[in-house]
Amino acid sequence: MSVINHQLSFSDVADAFLVHGSLQSPAFLDGRLAASLALHDLAADAWLNELCDALGVDQPHDQESAEVLLAWRRQSLEALAGEALNYEPLLPDEMFSLAERARGLQEWTLGFLEVLNDVDPERRQGWSAPLREALDDLEGLAAIDTELEESSENENDLFALTEHVRMAAMLLYTEQHPGKPQVEQVEEPH
Question: Which regions span the lipid bilayer (predicted)?
Answer without folding.
Answer: none
